[in-house]
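Structure tokens please, single chain.
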Amino acid sequence: MKKLLILFTIFCLITTFVTAQRKRKNRGHRNIMNYRVLKESNHCGVDNAFIFIARDQKTFANFPINLSEKIDFSREAVVGFFAGTKPTMGYRVQVSAADGIVSGNVQAPPSDAIVAEVLTSPCKVVAVAIPEDRPLLIKASSDWKMSEYKVSKGKIEYSGGFAPRQKSYDVEGKIFSLASGNLITLIFELNAKGDPKIRLYEAVSGLLENSSVNLNRVDPGGFSEHPRPFMKATGTLSAEKLSLKFEPNPTMVINDGFQAEGFIEAIRIKTTSR
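Here you go.
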């Protein structure tokens, strides 16, 4: 009996140790995302440091440079990191993707490297494997300066379903903005006031014309039940304020689907990187 008790104790200790090791390993595990390079060049022709994300054909049509590849947006997203004008050769854009985040940074040539003194505009454009209903975020080094806006007022609501229901959320959070010419990228980090589990975390690109913002595809995130269409966002951007109105895109789901809509007003607080 005593031997059985000792063996049982040893078994429990081993099981506890193995479980702890597995949890520790899982915490350090990263879900690496596959991507293919569509373009990598020292001369991309985009003078400003900029990032552009296309997750639908309409947005892709406004990509900063011409790309001939066909993209299946149900399975891929196109992300372009443009480093802006650099004084010499030797600069490179590096990209990695994991856990729903595509990261970019600019690698400068070594200080003792002999490089041609000619203006360059490095870029790297990748097609990242991600289902169309998954959010995609961007993380960029300090080479990309963004305007950070804090939400001062906002509300997102959804309605629909076979047994019709409606729910409304006050919104809080931040939005990061990066613009180049008539193009803009917004990185949303929003959640329902008092409930951080209900959130919209996504990077979206679109048009910026005469201070008017037009985004064709914004996922409602946790602010709506499924099935639901993506939202479109329209509004205005100034040096100090960002205002957006969200409306549902047309959908084929009629009887039991949901639709989300709302608005956001945000005040610029600083220039930063993300």
